[in-house]
Design brief:
Helix content: 25-40%
Largest sheet: 6 strands, mixed
Number of strands: 10
Strand content: 15-25%
Number of helices: 11
Distance between the termini: 13 Å
CATH topology: Rossmann fold
Strand order of the largest sheet: 6-7-8-3-9-10
CATH class: Alpha Beta
CATH superfamily: P-loop containing nucleotide triphosphate hydrolases
Radius of gyration: 19 Å
Length: about 290
């Protein structure tokens, strides 16, 4: 593959603008514990290898996710981003022939260790999917509480919890007068924010988001991004996105995934979003964020 710098890539495709990353609110992640953020680390992938049958789709992934931060996972389609994010709350194992090696640590404990309660893991690590998936026959109010019911939890302050979660998801003012309406009555963007509220109701410490805005209009996308920015003060967020501008707007750290020449996917570069978009160390990262390929 031909390798060119940012300037050359812009010349080849002058309509593509390189996003300007926001100044990160978090300190740089380091390889050793003394360089980690003072707030600590919520999740870690250590030497992770992921297969479907005999096909190795991701190889030797090592990533650290700081507490109360946003990490964007970027890269071309087919490089393993969504597969990776599904390993972080044990959804990968639901796929026939799926296998993995390595560790996924939540607060220092391997979520794949024998005897681990998968239900408890998924309460601590929430998931928002590419397409909104509220329960259409349930009311807005009941959708927010549905995760709690599935986990057989029965909080005493249900109405307050519904308001809190819908407020955090940026939806309360739009639906507070129709909580008894069915979720299907909401727009696509509102349904996605309802799914975020549903995920928040079980009080996760980590929220995974797999292209949460790909099916939404620009206005709804902006509201979701505002929600991400507000939530990141109290929760660790990991988001897969193909939108470079979005990655630059919402994330503190960025990991660039790539699968090339028929090889398995891997992390090419991981750093603060400011460094990835402003001072990438690998030419392949430069080429991708400038629109040279992908």
């Amino acid at each position: 593959m031909e390798k060119v710098g940012v300037a050359e890539a812009m010349t080849a495709n002058p309509k593509v603008a390189i996003p300007v990353a926001r100044k990160s609110r978090r300190p740089a992640l380091g390889a050793s514990s003394d360089l980690l953020p003072s707030g600590g680390v919520d999740m870690e992938a250590k030497d992770l290898h992921i297969w479907f049958g005999s096909n190795l789709v991701l190889e030797k992934v090592n990533l650290t996710f700081a507490s109360n931060s946003v990490t964007a996972l970027i890269g071309p389609s087919g490089c393993g981003k969504s597969t990776f994010i599904r390993t972080l709350n044990r959804m990968h194992e639901l796929i026939p022939t799926a296998a993995l090696a390595g560790e996924v640590l939540l607060n220092g404990k391997d979520i794949y260790a024998p005897g681990t309660d998968v239900t408890q893991i998924r309460l601590k690590i929430g998931m928002v999917f590419q397409k909104p998936n509220p329960f259409p026959a349930m009311t807005i109010h009941d959708n927010v509480l549905s995760g709690l019911r599935l986990a057989k939890l029965n909080p005493s302050d249900k109405d307050d919890l519904v308001e809190e979660c819908l407020t955090k998801a940026g939806l309360w003012t739009e639906v507070k007068d129709r909580l008894g309406a069915h979720a299907i009555s909401l727009s696509g963007g509102q349904q996605q924010r309802l799914c975020i509220a549903r995920a928040l109701a079980v009080r996760p410490s980590v929220l995974l988001m797999d292209e949460p805005c790909s099916a939404l209009d620009p206005g709804s996308t902006l509201r979701i991004e505002d929600t991400i920015n507000e939530l990141s003060d109290s929760i660790t967020i990991i988001i897969v996105t193909h939108n470079m501008q979005q990655a630059a707007r919402v994330s503190d750290y960025t990991a660039f995934f790539l699968a090339e020449y028929g090889e398995s996917g891997r992390v090419i570069e991981f750093a603060s979003t400011e460094d990835i978009f402003g001072r990438p160390q690998d030419k392949r990262t430069e080429n991708y964020i400038s629109g040279r390929f992908g």
